[in-house]
Design brief:
Blueprint: E1 3-10, H1 12-16, H2 20-29, E2 33-40, H3 44-50, H4 60-67, E3 72-80, H5 82-90, H6 103-107, E4 116-118, H7 122-132
The structure holds adenosine-3',5'-cyclic-monophosphate.
Length: 140
Amino acid sequence: MAVERTLSIIKPDATRRNLTGDINTRFEKAGLRIVAQKRIRLTRAQAEGFYAVHKARPFYGALCDYMTSGPVVVQVLEGEGAIARNREIMGATDPKKAAKGTIRADLGESIEANCVHGSDAPETAAFEIGYMFAGIEITG
Ligand code: CMP
């Protein structure tokens, strides 16, 4: 399997509950390497641009409000099949439907406050990594 990079976000509900270390340990134990990471507070315009693909969805406004409600940790994870691997570690979007032992099942509060975001395909990973990081900030 090819080595890939994926964009991960530790969301405001998780930073508020001091879960960054717990979540990072799960990534590292699963063989993903954190090759870039920073804690930031997204502006409304930055959140809207990041989630532009969801613009027509009914939850878009609330999602952008939520993602600007507190600090987030944005990260680039690297590893074999990193995009799919990260999605396995995260679990389903809705914590109630996520498999036991996944981040969202163990730590998620709701479909909105679900601890983490991860890119869903190579094209979105490329867009999302470029949105959050300059190439010089990523060190494999
Ligand atoms: P994320 O992987 O960050 O991508 C979009 C986010 O929208 C998703 O995780 C959820 O946290 C959030 N969201 C809120 N409501 C819904 C919904 N009804 N269906 C899907 N995603 C939702």
